[in-house]
Amino acid sequence: MLQFSMRLDWEVGVFWGQFACQFACQFASHTELGDEISPLLKICLFFTVWLGVWVPILVPLAWRWRWSPSRPLTPSQKLILVGSLYLLFPLPLWGLTKLTGVSFWPYSLLIGPQGLSWLSLGLAMGICSVMILAVVQRMAGWVSWTLNSTVRDGLWQFLLALVLGIYIAGVEEFIFRGLVQQDLQRELSVWSAASVTSVIFALLHLVWQPRQTLPQLPGLWLMGMVLTQACLIGDGSLSLAWGLHGGWVCAMIWLDRCDANEPTGRVPPWVTGVGGHPLAGIVGLVLLAMVGGLLWLRPFWLFAVNG
């Protein structure tokens, strides 16, 4: 049975690899070196090849874990899948550059010369905003804090969450606010492109846990729009959005690992977040709206970082 499964996984991987290469080569033959293909085709090409090279990893793990909509992934299993997918994303960029002659790497320039300052500011804003949200809900009695770890363990978990947050957010911002957003802006206005990009960003999260993610779609879309606003403040640089996104991920991972944000049931789940997910609740949406409003006002300290 194991040999049959391994053979099936290999055949599936080979099929997707051949499909991805044929799909890319079909348009490479019509694209001369240095010529640009359409933005939508470029985006579809990237995601097709990226998912294609990931399938040989996904299939055996999903079979081993018996992953199904009725059997959601554990946090550790989801982290393994996310990590493997995000580690592979340079491969389609490199492969498509070789096949089509179209370079994806100029988007790396969107980090900007003052990227470290913007990144640090974004991390601070993201972490502080989530912690303020958690404290307010704790004071209102909507959530409880158990903190089942020592100070040393809590610090270690925070540092690990920080590294994961920076890495995950960096990949997602490069792809969505970088590659997808910038390509769509060639044919759409900034906010129209941002809206489409945010829809793609939200829908792709359904891959992991469809039932749990469905109530979060409005929040994920709004999150994408706020991150676009962060890019506009830095004149197109991804650094502030990267930091803000990374701070949110870091804080949420840390609170989840420490069991520090458990709903008490005093208010309906749609207030604090359906299934314990803040983006699926009114409070989370209010937080995003407040951060977006702060970025829109552009207080003096944002200009100080840019200066």
Briefly characterize the structure:
With 307 residues, this protein is mainly alpha-helical. 72% of the residues lie in helices and 1% in strands. A two-stranded antiparallel sheet has the order 1-2.
Structure, described:
The structure is a single chain. With 307 residues, this protein is mostly helical. The chain folds into 2 domains: 2-103, no CATH class; 111-306, no CATH class. The chain contains 13 helices and 2 strands. Helix 1 (2-28) runs antiparallel to helix 2 (39-65), helix 2 (39-65) packs across helix 4 (90-100) and helix 6 packs across helix 7 (190-204). The chain is globular. The N and C termini lie far apart (63 Å). The relative contact order is 0.12.
Q: What general form does the structure show?
A: globular
Q: Could you tell me the number of beta strands?
A: 2
* Overall pLDDT score: 79
Beginning-to-end CA distance, first to last residue: 63 Å
Strand content: under 5%
Low-confidence stretches: 1-35
Q: What class do helices, strands and sheet pairing give?
A: mainly alpha
Specify the biggest β-sheet: 2 strands, antiparallel
Strand numbers in spatial order across the main sheet = 1-2
Number of domains: 2
Q: Can you give the helix content as a percent range?
A: over 70%
Q: Would you list the SSEs in sequence order as H and E?
A: HHHHHEHHHHHEHHH
Number of helical elements = 13
Any idea what the radius of gyration is?
Answer: 21 Å
**Assembly of the depicted chains:** single chain
